[in-house]
Amino acid sequence: MSESSEVIIVGAGPVGLLTALGLARQGVEVTVLDSEPEVVRSPRAAVYFHTTISILKKLGLADEAHAIGLSSTEFAMHWLETGEVMRSDMRDALEPGQEFDHNLHFGQHILAELVIAHLDHLPNARVLWNHAVKALAQDARGVRLAADTDEGEVRFSAHWVIGADGARSTVRQLAGLPFEGMTWPDRFVATNIDYPFLDFGFGYANMVVDPDNWAVIGRLGRENLWRLTYGEDAGLDEQSILERLPERFAAILPDPSVPYRIDNFSPYRVHQRCVPSFRVGRVLLAGDAAHACNPCGGLGLTGGVIDADALSDTLGAVIGGRAGESVLDFYAAERRRVFLEVTSPMSANFKRLLSEKDPARRAQDKAEMFAQAEKGGAEVRASSLAELIKGAPMPVEPAVA
Ligand SMILES: Cc1cc2nc3c(=O)[nH]c(=O)nc-3n(C[C@H](O)[C@H](O)[C@H](O)COP(=O)(O)OP(=O)(O)OC[C@H]3O[C@@H](n4cnc5c(N)ncnc54)[C@H](O)[C@@H]3O)c2cc1C
Fold first, then answer.
1. pLDDT category of residue 157 using cuts at 50, 70 and 90
2. What per-residue confidence (pLDDT) applies to 382?
3. Atom of ligand 1 nearest to the CA of 169
4. Quick check: 108 and 51 in contact, CB under 8 A?
């Protein structure tokens, strides 16, 4: 059996689905293939910066995202050893022309389901579950794919293929691309817990600085569930991590005598990695398939959503005859540049800041952060992460849907 589609996107994660919606809204025929039977629901990213909300608005998703999500403006940095807290509010440092003065918090699986509900209304878009892509070949005219399904192997052909199949991307491997970079020596443990953080001066988004008991703590959405991520010895197996968890929480939580409920627990390895090229002929990569970073700072999915927006604009323009293929090279080079020059170093620096072992460097970091917070306004804006990770605009006019 063989099927064809103008564009095939491998991976129905948030990046693949948003790219599909961006293309389908321009009239492009899109097929999304995913190896799983439904949206992956494991707890992962949950914070959408204001720049991401602007992209959701462009796709007609902002109202629903606001109806679902928790609006948040405050960030707090806590120093465990001294109890000091530095607070900032993004409303004090708005960018000129900034559309939204807040971030939104809700699980990425909820975003994926929201996008699918919109794709379901478009006759030129479809999502096929239980399709594990395993082979790929391309020539000047198009790309051929093979996927394993419950009914056996199915073959597809497309003019363009997008690999949005996550950090272990099969498309990246089939395109012959290495995933260059490093893996952090410690393990990250993502837990979802019910705990009254607001009663202890925590904001909706927090970082805890400590050489041993550093943590990232953020509320996951409207219900009182929080993601508490901390670092653990990579030599420990999952059972040992679970056994040590009460001891670790006792050191991290502001009052460990207050009961907490663990809703989810997931230790994982974290990388700073990127492909040497986001484009190989008619195969393009986006999201975690192209780049991976540690979650301190919430930059992983943010970068992927910006990829999705840039790629649907550029590929849509090429398919619609409004631009030549060179805009795809622009996409590939610019999104890689932003990852290597901005996203990866910043996320790595967040991780260093949180877990800095040298007391003198830790003191210097703290002094610099308080000084920065005092300045506020324009000087804070100049280093605004959300703006830097947007990168240069794609050299195409977005199509009118
Ligand atoms: C525990 C955890 C916590 C995280 N926390 C944060 C956070 O707080 N902030 C943040 O910004 N980021 C976080 N991340 C990272 C964030 O989840 C990713 O950046 C995001 O999921 C990337 O989206 P994606 O669509 O590129 O890939 P994914 O969400 O990984 O989606 C890839 C899809 O491809 C499918 N697929 C894979 N292989 C194939 C194949 N061969 N054929 C067909 N389909 C295939 C998969 O089933 C999946 O649906 C976290 C990640 C983890 C694991």
1. very high
2. 44
3. 38
4. no
Domains and CATH numbers, the chain: 2-73+97-182+272-352 (3.50.50.60)
**Residue whose CA is closest, atom 18 of ligand 1?**
301
Q: Tell whether ligand 1 has an atom less than 6 A from the beta carbon of residue 171.
A: no
Atom of ligand 1 nearest to the CA of 190: 1
Encode pLDDT of 348-389 as tens digits: 999 999 999 999 999 999 999 888 877 765 544 444 676 788
- The pick from 134, 184, 288, 305 for probing ligand 1's pocket by mutation, whose C-beta has the most ligand atoms within 8 angstroms, reads 288
pLDDT in tens, 66-76: 999 999 999 99
Cβ of 163 closer than 6 Å to ligand 1, yes or no, is no
- Residue 1 clears pLDDT 70, i.e. is over it: no
Burial of 322 (0-12, 13-18, 19+ CB in 10 A): middle
Residue 213 Cα to ligand 1 middle (Å): 26
Q: What is the pTM of this model?
A: 0.96
